[in-house]
Amino acid sequence: MLDCGMHMGFNDDRRFPDFSYITRNGRLTDFLDCVIISHFHLDHCGALPYFSEMVGYDGPIYMTHPTQAICPILLEDYRKIAVDKKGEANFFTSQMIKDCMKKVVAVHLHQTVQVDDELEIKAYYAGHVLGAAMFQIKVGSESVVYTGDYNMTPDRHLGAAWIDKCRPNLLITESTYATTIRDSKRCRERDFLKKVHEAVEHGGKVLIPVFALGRAQELCILLETFWERMNLKAPIYFSTGLTEKANHYYKLFITWTNQKIRKTFVQRNMFEFKHIKAFDRAFADNPGPMVVFATPGMLHAGQSLQIFRKWAGNEKNMVIMPGYCVQGTVGHKILSGQRKLEMEGRQVLEVKMQVEYMSFSAHADAKGIMQLVGQAEPESVLLVHGEAKKMEFLKQKIEQEFRVNCYMPANGETVTLPTSPSIPVGISLGLLKREMAQGLLPDAKKPRLLHGTLIMKDSNFRLVSSEQALKELGLAEHQLRFTCRVHLHDPRKEQETAMRVYSHLKSVLKDHCVQHLPDGSVTVESILIQAAAHSEDPGTKVLLVSWTYQDEELGSYLTSLLKKGLPQAPS
Amino acid sequence: MAAHLKKRVYEEFTKVVQQQQEEIATKKLRLTKPSKSAALHIDLCKATSPADALQYLLQFARKPVEAESVEGVVRILLEHYYKENDPSVRLKIASLLGLLSKTAGFSPDCIMDDAINILQNEKSHQVLAQLLDTLLAIGTKLPENQAIQMRLVDVACKHLTDTSHGVRNKCLQLLGNLGSLEKSVTKDGEGLAVRDVQKIIGDYFSDQDPRVRTAAIKAMLQLHERGLKLHQTIYNQACKLLSDDYEQVRSAAVQLIWVVSQLYPESIVPIPSSNEEIRLVDDAFGKICHMVSDGSWMVRVQAAKLLGSMEQVSSHFLEQTLDKKLMSDLRRKRTAHERAKELYSSGEFSSGRKWGDDAPKEEIDTGSVNLIESGACGAFVHGLEDEMYEVRIAAVEALCMLAQSSPSFAEKCLDFLVDMFNDEIEEVRLQSIHTMRKISNNITLREDQLDTVLAVLEDSSRDIREALHELLCCTNVSTKEGIHLALVELLKNLTKYPTDRDSIWKCLKFLGSRHPTLVLPLVPELLSTHPFFDTAEPDMDDPAYIAVLVLIFNAAKTCPTMPALFSDHTFRHYAYLRDSLSHLVPALRLPGRKLVSSAVSPSIAPHEDPSHQFLQQSLERVYSLQHLDPQGTQELLELTIRDLQRLGELQSELAGVADFSATYLRCQLLLIKALQEKLWNVAAPLYLKQSDLASAAAKQIMEETYKMEFMYSGVENKQVVIIHHMRLQAKALQLIVTARTTRGVDPLFGMCEKFLQEVDFFQRCFITDLPHLQDSFVDKLLDLMPRLMTSKPVEVVKILQTMLRQSTFLHLPLPEQIHKASATIIEPAGESDNPLRFTSGLVVALDVDATLEHVQDPQSTVKVQVLYPDGQAQMIHPKPADFRNPGPGRHRLITQVYLSHTAWTEPCQVEVRLLLAYNSNSRIPKSPWIEGGEVSPQLETSIEGTIPFSKSVKVYIMPKPARR
């Protein structure tokens, strides 16, 4: 099973996947060899405790080390909001999260993990968030690559997704931005920095509502380096709690970040922020410029909303929304230009501060998806994680550019794709030795013809010599002979004709053993040729050619040779 | 590495031994020579196991073999080869054969037959490969011999079908290095051997082993390097290899495609899947562009680099590289660059305040969107955004090269370059600023671009800021607001980083003189003059005010109406600045003021010729009047030296030549003076005192000659001869003086011998130039050489004395371009009264910042010297990375010097200065028996002496005693 996410939009049972699709009835463990989690976002791992503890699954769960570290923090946070704040019952508990995490097996990048005798998985770097990975799943010679979410353009703290030319049978790729081609990230970054810088220079306070993980770190790095470069002094704050823990893991998993951070961490770990400090509620009233990162990202509750209310009245201040806002949130309202907000208790908040929007998204755009498809060279592509209309466009493009099949199944739909797997067959030693004795040593790169019997028994393929096969199966051997008559125009006697046939064959088939037997017949290896007079026409002789089916090749060659007739006798 | 060092140690060791032998008896050495092969023979016979034999061979390989004995050694090795069963020993022998055949002075054609012979009987693939390598060594040693090359190529072709990739690799390498055109083959008359090497190599492009494929492409490139014209058919084959599974193959293929595109830029190739045809160079460009988004970063770097040198590509394709069609939900979107441009042209400033600011506009036809770039589309957009900074730098470099050749492209790529100013890696930022400077002739910055550029002025890295100042020096700004913006930002920079003062002033100087008309309307505002009221006089020492004045005065130079706007104190300040900062403030034609400076004004072009003539004339006068009476000569020399020095000060472009000749004349003057001394006529006991003068003169001449040789860049060989000649004379003088002042003959022996060695050395080094030295001191000296060799020191001295007096004054030919090396220490400024306090025994780091001009190879020659008050001197070698190269002929040293001393009772000053280290031995032609690269490192890097070439700066320091 690839990923085990939840739906953010629902608060009832629809929030978690319906696992009965897999089992109908029976235990999940019997149906699943393993579960692979691509990264720690809740839409990819949110249902994990429910799945493993409440529904019940005891098999291994594979994820990368950073995901393993950060995932429980997010799950715990999510649980708190759902249970403690909203008071929901029938939800997984902290203990369940812990138990669930005990089933996790961490994998390294490019490490091939043997799940069982047949199944092996391998992780590739995917960008997107810390620890995001793409997984190659392989059974025998057939393989599937599942990308999870990925990003093909590097950013300030993560590199670009990369995969080798693994030529999988199927590539399952996300397609969030199937119909978007993005502008250069530099323009975006420059705009962002310029806006923040200007506001701070004029003594304003800048509020950046973010979600705790992922883009938040990206923006922190961006501001931190900018502050460093420009020698700015205004303080930057980050709201405490979840983020601090997460930042700690960012510091630890340096190998998962981009080139710049990896190269410079010996001097200084980029996540040990010099300019960014923990936020305290009291700081919001401090005079002078400052930048504050506060959660949550859509200004719908919590600290970010509190700060927003404090600062909204001053036109020097600024709020920058770095991501998408759901309809109905304060964030969405101010972005759509609303200047007067009704807060709870019939208060009206007048928004004088500047409102900016900026999209920092870490998904691959259409070009990026195409680039990845080009890199992996799959036999077919399957699009997921996107809108059907947009996928339609991308599907058409992929089919057109790469000439591969592309699928975009709806939820619950099954796709069957034909593959041509190579099947290993065991060869018996006796047969092999016999074959070797015949001549050349086997060459791995060249095909070779050999005779034998293929025995298929309980999904087990063996190639053995025919005698052995007969013995094993307890069958008696049947002789199969082909006989053929060749009419030859020759007025001479049978013996002479035989003699002529003998000398002719002797001269043509130099590397075969041709014999003239005393009874007047000719043998080539095991093929028997007899000459007889035609009953009606004495001028025509009938050659009787007979061979066993093992000598089919030589036999048919011989008949075709004889059919051409004998060369004129030198007499 | 360790093995390598060890080898070197052994080599040196053996060399020393040989030299000793040479001194004792040369015969002995000859006896040892043949024994070398004999010893090897014995060793190999003794060897009981292959491991033993291998050990002996390894030992043997550590020692060099003389050319004469190579043949014998080879025979013995071959003999053992035939007997040997162990492949590893055979392998070693084969590799030894290759090494031996490289020995200078040995002609390896005699080995070849044997080598080919054993090749045919060899079974082990590794040994085969090694033998082919040996053949390659032999073949490269004999490039003229066509027949041998032919044979080797035949051998290589025969083994191409080998199953081992190593053997095929080597064969292809051999073909690449030795294969020649068909023509020469047919000439030989061997009908069957008509082979097309290119076709044979081309067949291996589809080998099953990636290493062989790579080797085949490399061989093809090798053919190209050797001057063979590659066939155009290779292009298609190479294109197929671009989608190879292995990165080294792709990387090599990119190179090959580039080569072919340079060979046949104009030929036409069809586009697959359509009927159109395009030029080959355009097609290749498109293909290489595609590789910029390859999976392997090595390939990406390679591709990005090569793009820069494809200048023949048509502009249509070139501009595509910057093109990336944006879309959002299938609707066309404008890029931020386009939006910025539009906003600018509509006169609005970017608001960025609306959410839908970048809302997508028109719908796009789904069929027309091309997600996989067919050609060059967006190559640079990808390259500049790459994850690896190596790729980004390569892309910036390529962008620079292409922009230099195409002004329209330069205009287009500007936006992208400006974006690169915000890269996270400093190296990339620096590179893009430099690039921008290089193409600045072709571009004018828009205001919004200027804004971004200027934002970088706040960067905390000094290199970046200074590079940016340089860039601003040569940019074109389109509006007066732009100039104002630039000035404001520069002043901000000045307050934030006061150390940038000089650089900013210089930048404003150029900015002013480039845009006089744009500065003119800003003047009242900048000087804050008011039509009715007098305003307060600004502080003259304020660097910011000076910066503004520098801008205005330089603009006023070409804008005569500007001075009318100045207030009274501005004129006063002008006079002050003109004197104190004359390099920044030009002479102005001010109303009511005579243009006094015009007479001295150095910058007017017509003066150039006369002054050069003057220089020539005065030098000729000196050279022609050499037979004047001593008194007259001296006076003339003194006069000329003075003239030259003054000329050098006035004409900066002639300073090098003038100084150089003046120094030479001064040497001559010193020599004449020394020879005029009375001491030569006085009896021995009395001249003790006078001799000081003469020996001091000799010493000074030596110093001056070293300066002449090493402190000037552009000194050619003919000058070096003269300089060495002068030095020889000084040495002779020294010898004579010591001969007269010391008693006893013993010390003289050594000195005489040394001197004669010097003469011999001179003759060896400058044998080709000797004809030019007719009638000179050395000419005469060499005539008498046989006599000198045999005579006693006293006689030698006598002969030298007369010769020195008779010798004529050599004419010093002036080199084309000559510049004196100079250095200025910017930091430490040496003005601080606060001592640098530190605990004694520990170290304190002193930042040293200096500019060096016309220093060749500063990394190895420039040293920092620290002189402590107790006379202790310390020489510090700066790291090579401490030197930056901001422009041709200029270097910048930014380094840290560590000071330490025992405790002092009170603060005291240490002196810091820069030295130029030299080593006259580096001019020795390399001895033929030492192969290149094996010269012992000490010889190359040792310092013979140093010349101080900067003013020393005093730094106040105070080592405190450590507290207990």
Automatic annotation (TrEMBL), chain A:
This is Integrator complex subunit 11. The gene is INTS11. InterPro entries: Beta_Casp, INTS11-like_MBL-fold, IntS11_C, MBL, Metallo-B-lactamas, RibonucZ/Hydroxyglut_hydro, RMMBL. It is found in: Cytoplasm; Nucleus. Residues 216-334 form the Beta-Casp domain. SUPFAM superfamilies: Metallo-hydrolase/oxidoreductase (SSF56281). Keywords: Cytoplasm, Hydrolase, Metal-binding, Nucleus, Zinc. GO terms for cellular component: cytoplasm; nucleus. The keyword Hydrolase applies. It comes from Neomonachus schauinslandi. Its main location: cytoplasm. Its cofactor is Zn(2+). Component of the Integrator complex, composed of core subunits INTS1, INTS2, INTS3, INTS4, INTS5, INTS6, INTS7, INTS8, INTS9/RC74, INTS10, INTS11/CPSF3L, INTS12, INTS13, INTS14 and INTS15. The core complex associates with protein phosphatase 2A subunits PPP2CA and PPP2R1A, to form the Integrator-PP2A (INTAC) complex. INTS11 is part of the RNA endonuclease subcomplex, composed of INTS4, INTS9, INTS11 and inositol hexakisphosphate (InsP6). Interacts with WDR73; interaction is required for the assembly of the RNA endonuclease subcomplex in the cytoplasm. Residues 17-204 form the Metallo-beta-lactamase domain. Belongs to the metallo-beta-lactamase superfamily. RNA-metabolizing metallo-beta-lactamase-like family. INTS11 subfamily.
TrEMBL record, chain B:
The keyword Repeat applies. Pfam families: HEAT_2, INTS4_8HBD, INTS4_C, PDS5. It is found in: Cytoplasm; Nucleus. Residues 824-961 form the Integrator complex subunit 4/Protein SIEL C-terminal Ig-like domain. The keyword Cell membrane does not apply. Residues 613-815 form the INTS4 8 helical bundle domain. SUPFAM superfamilies: ARM repeat. One of its GO terms (biological process) is snRNA processing. GO terms for cellular component: cytoplasm; integrator complex. Keywords: Acetylation, Cytoplasm, Isopeptide bond, Nucleus, Repeat, Ubl conjugation. InterPro entries: ARM-like, ARM-type_fold, INTS4_8HBD, INTS4_C. Belongs to the Integrator subunit 4 family. Component of the Integrator complex, composed of core subunits INTS1, INTS2, INTS3, INTS4, INTS5, INTS6, INTS7, INTS8, INTS9/RC74, INTS10, INTS11/CPSF3L, INTS12, INTS13, INTS14 and INTS15. The core complex associates with protein phosphatase 2A subunits PPP2CA and PPP2R1A, to form the Integrator-PP2A (INTAC) complex. INTS4 is part of the RNA endonuclease subcomplex, composed of INTS4, INTS9, INTS11 and inositol hexakisphosphate (InsP6). Interacts with BRAT1; interaction is required for the assembly of the RNA endonuclease subcomplex. This is Integrator complex subunit 4. It comes from Neomonachus schauinslandi. The lineage of its organism: Eukaryota, Metazoa, Chordata, Craniata, Vertebrata.
